[in-house]
Amino acid sequence: MSSQPTFEEIVALAKRRGFVFPTSEIYGGLANSYDYGPMGVELLRSIRNLWWTEMIHKRTDMVGLDSQIMLHPETWVASGHVASFSDPLVEDTVTKKRYRADHLIESWLEKHPEVEVGAVEDMNLAEMGAFISERKVLSPDGNPLTEPRTFNLLFETAIGSVAGEKAKVYLRGETAQGIFSDFKNILDSTRVQLPFGVGQIGKSFRNEITTGQFVFRTLEFEQAEIEYFFDPNKTEWQPLFQEWRDYMWKFVTEKLGVNAENLRWRQHTDKERSHYSKDTYDLDYNFSFGWKELWGIAYRTDYDLKQHIKHSGQKLEYTDPFTGEKIVPHVIEPAVGVNRMFLMVLTDAYWKDEERQRVVLRLKPELAPYKVAVFPLVKNKEEIVSKAKEVFSLCADHVRTAWDERGNIGKRYLSQDEIGTPVCITVDYQTLEDGTVTWRDRDSAEQVRVKIEELVKRLR
Ligand code: GAP
Predict the structure, then answer these.
(1) Residue 289: predicted pLDDT
(2) Does the predicted TM-score (pTM) go above 0.70?
(3) Using CB atoms within 10 A as the burial measure, which of 82, 141, 303, 344 is most buried?
(4) 337 CA → ligand 1 middle, Å
C-alpha cells in the first residue's frame, strides 16, 4: 500500500531521523533556514554528485566551474537583478508581517472557486493591488493589507576594508552569472567548441518572504545550473531545448528514481517569463503542498553575454576555429535547486507500508545514506560481535555501511527502513558454523542466507 505522505509526515521524519533540522533551533530558529543532519548531508551529497556525474562527467560537451558567491557588484546591474529581481510584497497593517501578494491572491482564489480570473502570474502590481482592495483580500491573521510594492530579493552585504557605496556587494541570487562573467576565461583556457555547456553547483541567496515551505523555499540554497552555449545560425534552439528537457526528465525519473506520475511540464506565460528569457518551461513535481517548480529551463538568448559586454567593455565573443567568424553565443539554461531535488526524493520515496506497520524510504540504493547495515544478532557474545565487525569492515571497504547493535533485530530493521538502507545483514549463531549471514531486503522484508564471500559482489 502506498500513498503520498503529508507535509507534516515528511517534516517529522526529516527531523526525527536526522535529515533536516530547523537552523539555530536553540535560539528559536531563523525563518526559511535549515540545517542538513547526518542522514540529510549524505542524501544531499549523493544527489549533487549524481547531477555532476550525469551533467558534466558523462558528456563530452560540458565543463564545470566554481565561481564566487560575491561577484563584482556591477555583475548584478548588468544582469538586471538590481533593477528587476523582485517579488510583489504586501504588509499586514496590524501585525506588520510581510507576505507575497500573489500567494495571498492564490490562496483567496482557492477558497473562492466561483471567481474566475486569468493566471495570477500574469498580474502586474497595479492589478494585484486592485484585486486585493476590490475583493477585500485579508492577511492570514484577518487584517487589511497595504498596497503591493516590489521587494528586491538580492541580499546586500559590505566589504570591510572599503567605506561607502563602493563597498556594497551582493550575495549571488543565482550561480549563472559567474558562468557568464568567466565565459572568456573558460574559452581561453580549454578547448571547448560550440555547442558546449558550463555547469556549476553552489549556494545562492534570496531574501524570500514566504515562510512555511520547509526546504522548498529558503534564504540560502544550492543551485545546480547549466549555461549551454550555441551558435543560433548553426544550431536551431527548439530541438536543443527539447533535448535538454528530455535529459532533465530522464535524470529525474531514471537517476533519481522519481515516479513520472508526479511530474509534469508547464510553460511560462509571456507575462510570467523572466526579463531575459524567450521561452521557459518548469518541470513541476507534485509536492505534498501541490504542484510546484522543481527545475526550470529557459532560452536566455544572448541577453546576458551582451549585457556583460556592455557593462564590462570586454569582448565576450567566440571565434569559430574554422572560419574565424566572431559571434556572441546564445544560451539554454537548465537550472535546478539541489534542496528541491532533495525534498522531492524524500517525498517520492516515503512509503507507508500498512501491512507491516512501518515507514520505508524506498530510495534508490545509489542515493541511500547507507547502502547496507551490519548487525551482530546479540551484543554480549564475543565471537558473534567480532565476526560482525569483520563483515562490517569488508562492506565498509566498498560501500557506506551502518553498524547497529542496540535493541532487538526487528527494531533495528525498522530503524534502517526509515532512513532507506536497502539491505541489512545479520551475523548470528549459524554464521559461526557455516559462514553465511542473513540478508534482509528493505522493500520486501524477505530474508535469505548469503555466504560472506558473496556479499561484496551482491552489494555492488
Ligand atoms: N538562473 C536561473 C534561475 O535562478 P530560478 O527558477 O529562479 O532560475 C532555479 O531558480 C532553481 O533554483 C529553481 O527551479 C529552484 O529549484 C531553485 N530555487 C530557486 N529559488 C529557491 C529558493 N528560495 N529555495 C530553494 N530553491 C530555490
Answers:
(1) 92
(2) yes
(3) 344
(4) 5
Which residue type sits at 50?
A: L
Whole-number Å distance between alpha carbons of 267 and 297: 10
32 lines ligand 1 (CB under 6 A): no
CA 254: distance to chain centroid?
16
- Residues 42-60 have a mean pLDDT of 98
Structure confidence at residue 2 (pLDDT): 42
Q: Which residue ranges form the domains of the chain, and what is each CATH number?
A: 7-84+154-349 (3.30.930.10), 86-152 (3.30.40.230), 370-459 (3.40.50.800)
201 Cβ closer than 6 Å to some ligand 1 atom: no
**What is residue 162's predicted lDDT score, i.e. its pLDDT?**
63
Q: Is the CB of 268 under 6 A from ligand 1?
A: no
Say yes or no to pLDDT of 118 above 90. no
pLDDT tens for residues 171-219?
999 999 999 999 999 999 999 999 999 999 999 999 998 888 999 999 9
User: In sequence order, which residues have a C-beta less than 8 Å from that of residue 11 and are 6 or more positions away?
Assistant: 20, 214
Distance 195 CA to ligand 1 centre (A): 25
Residues of the chain with pLDDT > 90, as a percent, come to 90
Mean pLDDT along residues 399-420:
97
